[in-house]
Amino acid sequence: MTMALSPSSPESPAGASRGKALAAAAIRLGALATFAAIMAYFALTARGFATPFNIVNVIEQSAILGILAFGMSVVIIGGGSEVQTGGIDLSLAANAGLCAAVFATATNAGLPAPMAIAATLGTGMLVGAVNGFAVVGLGILPLLATLASMNIVAGIELTLTENTVLSTSSPLLSVLSSGRFLGISALAWVLIAASVIVGLVIHRTPVGLRLYAVGGHPEAARAAGLNVGLHVWGTYVFAGLCAGLAAILIVSRLSASTPGTGELLLSILAAALLGTVFSRRFVPTVGGTVLSVIFIGFLANGFQLLHLSSYWVSGVQGALILLVVAVTSYARPQEH
């Protein structure tokens, strides 16, 4: 004789649904509690950590990472967050380095600021378009396609710069590096504006809803008439746009294009992936990405104020990536 399951039973659909909701809530609350605990520790042990000046300084320093993390997050949203086959752009940091070299070269060649900006953004979007074609048109796994692209782009940057620092200056760079409005630097305003714009597009427009549909349920999205390939391709172009914008900020902050921008990749991945734990469905959100970017910025700042080696920051970021991937890989099968 078959026994009916009680609605409150863990094996019933209602019980399983409540269990999933509780697990997701526990992960989100745990992430927020960890964030708060680390901030409290630094505030108590690192002198000057909690001062308004330091907080604003961290936000300013986080602008470049934030712009790049938005690009990575959108790629993950549109391509799916499956670790092995989902959306990812490993060339994003290298693309920013190439765009920075293009911007510095164009500025030193005497091109007007609008033309230099157009060349920079165009370079980033071209790399993104090639990545999108490799993934959508050629059917190459994003992980492999963008890994190959990363090395190609890094080689082009080294060829253009001859592995040297390209110093440059312009009125635009001066405004970005030292301009202030309402006591807040131009770099911080760029991050704030980008957060608002990307947040509105991703969470409040049909474009964002379609990207979540394409990334989460591509077959259903295709059956509903959405052009899945075009949407995925567009995410890589957007990531390239973010690389170009971040490149201009990099040059403004350093007054030069410098080799080594590719080292930002670990921080970009950590910010985009860590942001997934703030979502009920373990997918990137703009708010979660912003929190992750600020957290990584404060983490590096706290280590610096405690006179700890910056190498520890990379180690912690790597550990966070492993932890987030493990948690989300374990939790996602419960949602199907």
Q: What does this molecule look like?
A:
- The protein has 336 residues and is mostly helical.
- It has a single domain, classed as ABC transporter involved in vitamin B12 uptake, BtuC.
- Helices cover 73% and strands 2% of the residues.
- The chain contains 14 helices and four strands.
- The relative contact order is 0.17.
Task: Identify the notable features of this structure and list them briefly.
single chain; 336 residues; mainly alpha; ABC transporter involved in vitamin B12 uptake, BtuC; two-stranded antiparallel sheet; two-stranded antiparallel ribbon; 14 helices
Summarize this, please?
It is found in: Cell membrane. This protein has 14 helices and four strands.
CA(first)-CA(last) distance: 29 Å
Beta-strand portion reads under 5%
Can you tell me the residue ranges where pLDDT is under 50 for at least 5 consecutive residues? Answer: none
Strand order of the largest sheet: 1-4
- Radius of gyration (Å): 21 Å
CATH architecture: Orthogonal Bundle
Q: Tally the helices: what do you get? A: 14
How would you classify the helix and strand content by structural class? mainly alpha
Helical amount among residues, as a percent range?
A: over 70%
Q: How confident overall, as mean pLDDT?
A: 85
Largest sheet: number of strands, sense, barrel closure: 2 strands, antiparallel
